[in-house]
Amino acid sequence: MEKLNLYQKLHKIQSQVIGLGKDSQGQNFKYVSGTKVLDAIKPIMNELGLLLKMEVLSIDNVRNDYT
User: Is 52 in contact with 45 (CB distance < 8 Å)?
Assistant: First the structure.
């Protein structure tokens, strides 16, 4: 496999995932569910050696007193 940089890998994913139909509805909108997006991109990400991760950078815990 050729050596691709991150942007080239992301472009490859973008070019291969075409036409995800909207499969969910809520708040008067139709949208593509996260599950459908992940099902489409994860095999390509695995092939390219990319990892999808979520990271919490900060948590603001603020108390709101209502009187």
Answer: yes
